[in-house]
Each structure stands twice: as C-alpha cells, then as structure tokens.
C-alpha cells in the first residue's frame, strides 16, 4: 500500500488506484487525489459516452437528477491533514477541507461542472451505498419525476476503514479469494463508478445508445448485528426476492449474479446459503462471480462499479470471473466462474450488495431488445 | 394506486427537551435552548453559543447493555426512535420486522468519532486497538444500531444532503410507503455538535457572533448575523394510512407532498437560487394536489443567515403573491439553533404539532424588522389557529432545496 504507512499492521496490500492524474484542475480542491477527482473523472466519461456531455440542449436540467453513494466521502484527504497538523487548534481543517468534507460536496462539485438541477442525494449506506443511490434514482425515473439521473459512488481508502477491517480480522493478507475454501478476507479498494440512467422514452427519443435496462431492485436490513452478516443470509434472501418481484422475473430468468462476495469466510458462506434458498435448484446453474477478486472491495463505490460490470456483461455477452480461486469449499458449491471469463449471452443479471449493519440492496439489469 | 401516508409517532432529543411534550411546551412558551457551549473547548474562537443537548439519560430508553460503546449521535437517535415507537404504540418484537424500515438524514453522521478513532490510530499501535473502539464509528452506524436494536428488517437508508438531509429522508420514506414497499418507516434525522462540525461552519463563515456581536440566532431579523449550531435527533413514525387505522394508531397528520430541487456549485445568482426554492415548493404542492392558497402555515428554514433568510422571504413573497404576506410563518431555529442534517425533521415535527394542536409557536429573538422581509411572522406570542395544510421549507448552503407538505387528516 502506498496511501499510508502499514508497517504496524499485519496486512500491507490493497487495491489502490495507481497513476491517476486528472487532466483538469477542479476549483477549490485539495491538491492530492480526492474522491471528488475520481468521481468527476468517471462522471465525465459516463456523460461523454451517453452523448449528454456536449449536447446540453437535449435535456432539461431541472429534470436531471443526481444520486451518489459513499462510505467515507473525503476522509482520506482529511486524514492526510490530521497526520500533518494533529496538534494544531484547527485539526488541520482549512477553508477548503471545511467546504469539501460534508459528503454532499460530491453532488455539489458534479453539479458545478455538469449543471444539473434536479433532485440530489448522497447515500451513506456503507458498502451498499451505490445500489441504494441507483434504487433511489430508479423510483424517480419510473414515476416520471426526472428524465435523467447520474448515479454511482466513490470511495478512497482511509486509514480508519483499513484499521477497522484489519482489527476485525476481515482483511486478506495476499489475495482476495471469494468462495475459495482458503479465503481469508477482503481486499480493500478504491475508485468510482458512474452510470447515466434515463427514462426509456427519453433515451429513445434523443437517439441514445442503450446499454442495458434496469429491471428492479430490492432492499432489506438484517436487523441482526452491527458488523456481522446474518449467518443464514435472511436479509439477503429478502432483498434478492424483492428485486425479482419488482422485475417480474422468476429465479430461472437470471443469467448471472455479481455476488457481493467479499472473500470473508462469513459473507461468502451466508451469501451462498441465501442464493440457494431463493434460487433452489437453479442456484447451481446460474454463473455467479465476485469481481472483488480483481478490483477489491470499493466500499461505498462497490455496488456502483459492480452495476457497471453487470451492464457491460449484458452488452458484451462476457461474464467476468472470480480469480484466485483454487480450492473448492463444500459450503460454497455454486458456479463461481473460476479464474476465467465465460462468453455467454444472458438476458438478466443480478447485482448483490450487503453492508455492515445488514444494509442490503440488490439491483437487476436486463438486456434491451 | 399510491398509498396514503400518516404520522403516528414522534420522538425527540433536543436542546429544548426530550419528549414531544417538553419540546412543544418549550417552543410555545418561547424558551430558548441556546447556551454557551460547554462540550467543546472554544477558547480560541469568538462564537461560543450553541443548542447543546444536556442531561439525556439514554439508559431510560435503551437500557444499560452495550451503552458504553455508543457515541453521542447513536444515543440521540436510539433514544428518539424508542420514544417514537412507543408514542406510535407499535410492537417492538419481530412481528412487524419485514414491514418496517428506517430512513434517516444525517449530514456528517458519526464523523467526529471517526476523527477520534483516527487519533487513536496514529497515537497508538493501530493493530492493537480493540474492534470495539470502532464499533460505532461508521458515518451511518447510528442507523445500523437502530435497525439492530429495534429489529427493523424492511430497509435501512441514510441520506446525507447537508441541511436538507432529514427533510429528504422524510420525503424518501413517504415515497417508499406510497409505493407500498413498507408499511411503517422510522424517519427523521440526527446530528451532533463536534469540534469538526464547528470548524466546518466556522471556517465557512456561517456562524452567528463571528463579528463579536452578542445577539445570536435571529431569523428574519434585520440584525441577523449567521446561525447558532445545534444538535439532536428528531424522529417520526410514518405509516400507511390503512395500517394505522386498522391498529387504531394515533394519527397526527398526513404527509401529502415532497419536492426537491438543486442548484450546485458556487456561481449561482440569488435569483437562480430563489427559482430553485420555488421549484421545490411547487413540486411539493403539485404532488399534494392542493392549491398554494390553501397553505395555512410555513415552517421556515430561516436560521438567521443574512443571504439565505432573504432569499427564503423573497421566494415566499413572489411564489405566493399577495397572499405571501398573510401566511403565518414560524421559525423554530430562533429557539433551538441550526441542527444541520436534523433540522428539517425538527421543523417537520413542529409543523405536525401545529396541525395537531392548532397552535403556531412564535419566533423569539426578533427585535428589528428587516424592511425587505414582508411576511406574516408570528412574533411575541403563539397563535391559536386551525391549520389544514402546512409547508416545511429547507435549504442547504450548497444548493439543495427540499419542501414537504402536510395536512390534517
């Protein structure tokens, strides 16, 4: 890890963003990399691809909303200042930090550059924040309150979160090996993922290239423990089931599951039990991978980035693998797409996210005909 | 068909007391919860006033078990939630679990605990810190505590949108019940005074008393000079109407509409901002499907800031036209200060109580009229008046505007 000194920890690895340089200077920003910069970068790319970046006449900015998920917002740059100025009376705060720290500064900075004036929200739902933001946007779009919503999430790797996971013994020392018998934990990651969601009629009318359709979502809460998942995945069953219900799909319609699959012994076992409980015999035939094996656990951004992955899997007909998978676990006996991607055209994909405190959110995306 | 949504329970932890009765009586009596702050060392700073929550005994509501691991915000939210559930006479076993959700607005969550934890990390050997030190440090951990403690299994959601957070949470919870995705939602806000939050406001120049003046928290007053920070937790039980009727629940008011509009960035003009506030009001009324002329009360965002209060007053005047001068306006931040992410829920509860009791609390600390504010401000004494429809207005410094419309059932 390069973000901070890990010499006093037992784990020294993570999935950091390397060599990131934003080609523009954002106003009133901390010089080093910040979550604003990651989110801005991803937002610009998403808008560019959607065709909305340069065609501002094609939308009504009052009907352009924004929803972002984050676990820690700008905690990482704040920690850098605290390390330098811990003894100062202002805790290292200066005017810039004061302006950027509140999590809603993320939506504020994006609005400043991309000029949308519809409803705005920041979701603080730990590791399911991204899917919560997507679900929120989906409701507004379905009810015709907006035409377009920029959704997604972003997080960096604060030392506090690293320590928290580390001391819960949740971090993998070398590799994140979801569903492997010898899995030892998660690998903390960072970054941002953004999607542009539009009402179907609006997208068609403006001639947009449609990547996928969102079919539904489900939310639930374990109501069980502050940091441990429910051992039988009770909340996970409810939220996957509610998502299927909203999408009007049956378990056999799902062609791929992007698992929450953190790589911790508890999560992967509980998630497998939950999938088998809900999908019954189909569970064994639905490819289900954890892309966290490759990019790590992006916390508040995880389910946003994984929704991007789901949409790309639909678009390209390729299902991403679970890497570092070597030893099957009798308790985790599904088709986890071990180590190699698979070319397979699927119609519907399901994206799970389960956060600390049992905050669960599942989204479903479908191929557009 | 959209479900109707009513308020069936209220829970409060505030600088003006810990139950809806105390809070309401103190507002009606014109008391102030603003005091020289003792929870922070403010010796280097000029602004020292705040709406501190004092003498809360969370063990009354939450028991003693595990209490020592809970931080201030979690104690606030846990206690307020327990009061609200009791007030709504809801069962607190698992019988309703899948039907109950929690949606809370909190702008910074447990941020100060996160900072404290970071100091522990850099001053000690981090790998030797007990996991219990960080048991309650996530920004949303107070909401997690509530879901675990009260066996809430429908959904848990935390919304951070600056000063509009808890109005947004109530608006979102209302939408979720409307869509029949839950029968009952614990909705509201929590925010806590901390040195970090103090510095965020202080360095942005938002606090009252920066110029050395003694008078503070003067909504709509000509001498207003910024806001006084406040803390607390304000929780309501929102419930699907038929569900509430079937179980014979007390019904305080009905939530009718929610509107939200945003203008981000720093470069917007006053006029543009006013247009967005108006848009939020318009959307909320449109959803409520009532005419703006039928609004009998506005619970104003007004917190004593020069620019924001002026924009709010002008917007109300222009949006309501000639009637803008007649609608009674309350501004409870005169009594309790600005509780940031929790403020919208506090205003919401005050408006619900006005509908429920037929009384409008008066604005205190108002001595000098601002010639540009031509509103029917309720001053000096509370007003007795039957209220059919009320509007709750919230505004964030970074451009978010949210508005709720509620009615007598």
Keywords:
heterodimer; A: alpha/beta; Peroxisomal Thiolase, Chain A, domain 1; 2 domains; 4-stranded mixed sheet; 11 helices; about 15% strand; B: about 400 residues; 11-stranded mixed sheet; 3-stranded mixed sheet; 16 strands; globular
Structure overview:
The complex is a heterodimer of chains A (369) and B (409). Chain A is 33% helix and 16% strand. Chain A has 2 domains: 24-206, Thiolase/Chalcone synthase (Peroxisomal Thiolase, Chain A, domain 1); 213-366, 3-Layer(aba) Sandwich (Peroxisomal Thiolase, Chain A, domain 1). In chain A, helix 1 crosses helix 4, helix 5 crosses helix 11 and helix 8 packs across helix 9 (265-279). Chain A has 11 helices and 11 strands. Chain A is of the alpha/beta class and 369 residues long. In chain A, strand 10 and strand 11 (359-366) form a beta hairpin. Chain A has a 5-stranded mixed β-sheet with strand order 5-11-10-6-7. By secondary structure, chain B is an alpha/beta fold. Chain B is built from 12 helices and 16 strands. Chain B has helices spanning 20-28, 58-62, 72-87, 111-123, 141-149, 165-178, 195-203, 241-246, 270-288, 306-320, 333-336, 343-357, and strands at residues 5-13, 35-36, 49-51, 100-105, 155-160, 184-191, 229-230, 232-240, 253-262, 297-299, 328-330, 359-360, 376-377, 383-384, 389-395, 400-407. The longest helix of chain B is centred in the last third of the chain and has 19 residues, at 270-288. The model of chain B has no long low-confidence stretch (mean pLDDT 94). Strand 2 (120-123) of chain A pairs antiparallel with strand 5 of chain B, so a sheet runs across the interface.
